[in-house]
Records
---
Amino acid sequence: MSQDIATIRVTRYRPEKDGKPYFQDYKVPYRKDMVVLDALNYIKAHLDGTLTYRWSCRMGVCGSCGANVDGVPKLTCASFLHEFKGRTIKVEPLTHFPVIKDLVVNMDENVTISSPPVSTACSATPPARSMVLTRSF
Ligand code: FES
């Protein structure tokens, strides 16, 4: 299987050390089946062990790998590198959340899971649970 080289431009930021965020570029060899999360894992394992980001399920379920990929909020485990062929892929933390380090944001106080409203009426379709994102400053 052939490999191409992707340029991954990642936001680096350690609030206790850096005055402001900056970009760092990494060259990552990749195959057609690799996703942005694979590139971050490659960087962490082979190029720069200080890169910090989150992931868990690697199946597009948990949402912990969310980041802005080329300016669009995406799951890095579901964003294929070959879709960006020939371009530098910019990976940034999600907007509107305080950055803890690099791509890791603090969502602790911003996410509330609300239960469906209690009702005594019979309904064919129960109301769905909803996730409410709130912004605090
Ligand atoms: S790692 Fe769980 S959605 Fe990507």
---
Amino acid sequence: MRARQYMLELCGGAGNVLTHHKTIKDLEQYYSGISDNKDVKEFLKNMTTDKEGILHLFPWSGIINENFELSDSFRVPDPHTGQMRRLISQIPPKEEEMFRNMIRRVNTIVKTAEELDVRIMIDAEQTYFQPAISRITLEMMRKYNTKKAIVFNTYQCYLKDAFQEVTTDLEQAKRQNFYFGAKLVRGAYIEQERARAAALGYPDPTNPNFEATTEMYHKTLTECLRRIKNLKDSGEDAKKIGIMVASHNEDTVRFAIEKMKEIGILPEDKVICFGQLLGMCDYITFPLGQAGYSAYKYIPYGPVKEVLPYLSRRAQENKGVLKKIKKEKQLLRAEIVRRLLSGKLFYTPKGNYVPI
Ligand SMILES: Cc1cc2nc3c(=O)[nH]c(=O)nc-3n(C[C@H](O)[C@H](O)[C@H](O)COP(=O)(O)OP(=O)(O)OC[C@H]3O[C@@H](n4cnc5c(N)ncnc54)[C@H](O)[C@@H]3O)c2cc1C
């Protein structure tokens, strides 16, 4: 609330710093009455902007600095007195410690991914946690995605805000010159989202029906493809945007392939990849791989006592997906019969498995 109030004061009542294109000059003007104040001078000195000169108001990068106190990250001078004031409440030491530990672990994981030259995809959770996850992931992208997309954020297209979120983050990546990685999903927590919204009396954040979610998915993916094509056409590195189409939905996978063709993005460009869960929809994953697309299987990994509850939760949340197993079984049966009849029991597919 305090942050929003500050932003409203600075922007003159509406919008935010990005939409108003506020620059350091505007900020100096805002504090012109108390420009001699030592704290104000220090605050203005540390201010950074993106490559278009738009203000980067809060030191968000501080949140992934393992040696930085979260409570110190968001402090601004009062425009009348110059006294520094907190935009977030003081966090108890125990919580500060837990937050730092979490950041240290995330840094270790991402650094290891960088060393091994693999990508790391951060999952999306319920909307009441997601802003924090997304913010940390974006900061990790800014820090690590300087030469290629290593860190990927996840965007749930069942959310009414999905398109807006993706385009805002794409803009941020463009302005701050880092590689953007996104995993696009429909979203796994629709029942919890709706139940919580109804119980607490706030508007349902999810799309009204499945068709609206599909439309959101396809619109968001199209926007990413369009931007990749722009990068390609302007001679920039097309890999500045990397997308995983994480879906078991045949129409969505077909849509992605057709749009890639229509817009002019080739599988060899290695900017789009596909992902399905291990043991699910192999009839989608395998042909994609054989046709030269980067296709991945997601493998839940960990101690049995942790993985089994995870899988049973996924099964509960994705009852719809389980219906596809019926189709898969029919296809597997037909394939076994075909191989028996043709006398070719074993088959090694040849694909082009260079990752995106
Ligand atoms: C590789 C991979 C990674 C994933 N990572 C994440 C993640 O990080 N976070 C996450 O939340 N999920 C994640 N998922 C799960 C994903 O969000 C979906 O729940 C799951 O893939 C089913 O959707 P689908 O696109 O495969 O297609 P389908 O099986 O065709 O989609 C059916 C699902 O759409 C859902 N749906 C969406 N919108 C609506 C609506 N408005 N009304 C009714 N139903 C609706 C239903 O819940 C139903 O289960 C991941 C999936 C994969 C394959």
